[in-house]
């Protein structure tokens, strides 16, 4: 038996057709589930998403066209390939099915070799697309972490330089006071001045150590979260402070302001790595696109809870996005900054992270000249 069995869902109101397809498919190669109603199929997909769906068109109640339409409208499941297995093979029927998002067609009565060939082809494409998606996300993570590493190194150098200066100054003072003490020329005022200088030097050292520690801790928290797939308890206000601090080096290059208005008591149980990617990408998009030509912009992040969900609201007061561009921003690789640091991955990955990884919803609105708003609705406790 192979190490991984591709999961196939058969949806057909006729049990005889289901039995036929089951016999065609190799039980050692595929893990097969079957239902006879479209409504039940959608519920099963939500519970356990398959790798492929073999879908009849003519069914009582919800037909195959409607099942396919609802699947393709849901970003969590739109990537699942759907093969219509149907007697409706007229040109207009096939065209309509493809317009709904079908990946392929198998005409009834189904033939074994055709079923195996088309199923195998779609599963290969599906797994290849999933690998490409994972690689894109990993590439983006590594790019973000690389940028953070460079920024943190630069930022930590400043407090370490201050620390070195303070220690050198303190050592010089100690040498001088020791010489005066040995020469018995040390006055009470000079000793009192020495004590004050040492206190100032120690305070400077402490400030530098605290800053360096905070910078390293912020990077550690964000980096570990992005490199793991573990859920964790998140204090949202402090989490955002850590993310913003981890971007300190980049943010210092701009005059823009980030206001964290999230209530300190809000907590959620979720994937902090995915959430940090969302926030970082939103901020990067504002810096790169939203504040172009603006002297000083403002980013505001707020949140509120309702029932068992949280609504995280991200706003900037930048140039906004025209209606014609707004409909394209979630497309893979779409960017208006192809040669200026825009990968075209940001907004598409934000949507994917929110709706797939974080099991939430993303609403993105904008008007040209009036900034953007991203409203992210997330469960307080991820299932």
UniProtKB/TrEMBL annotation:
The keyword Iron-sulfur does not apply. It catalyses: ATP + protein L-histidine = ADP + protein N-phospho-L-histidine. One of its GO terms (molecular function) is kinase activity. SUPFAM superfamilies: ATPase domain of HSP90 chaperone/DNA topoisomerase II/histidine kinase, CheY-like, Homodimeric domain of signal transducing histidine kinase. Keywords: Kinase, Phosphoprotein, Transferase. Signal peptide: none annotated. Its EC number is 2.7.13.3. Pfam families: HATPase_c, Response_reg. InterPro entries: CheY-like_superfamily, HATPase_C_sf, HATPase_dom, His_kinase_dom, HisK_dim/P_dom, HisK_dim/P_sf, Sig_transdc_His_kin-like_C, Sig_transdc_resp-reg_receiver. PROSITE patterns: HIS_KIN, RESPONSE_REGULATORY. Residues 151-382 form the Histidine kinase domain. It is an enzyme of class 2 (transferase). The modification 4-aspartylphosphate is found at residue 56. Residues 7-123 form the Response regulatory domain. CDD domains: HisKA (cd00082), REC_PA4781-like (cd19920). This is histidine kinase.
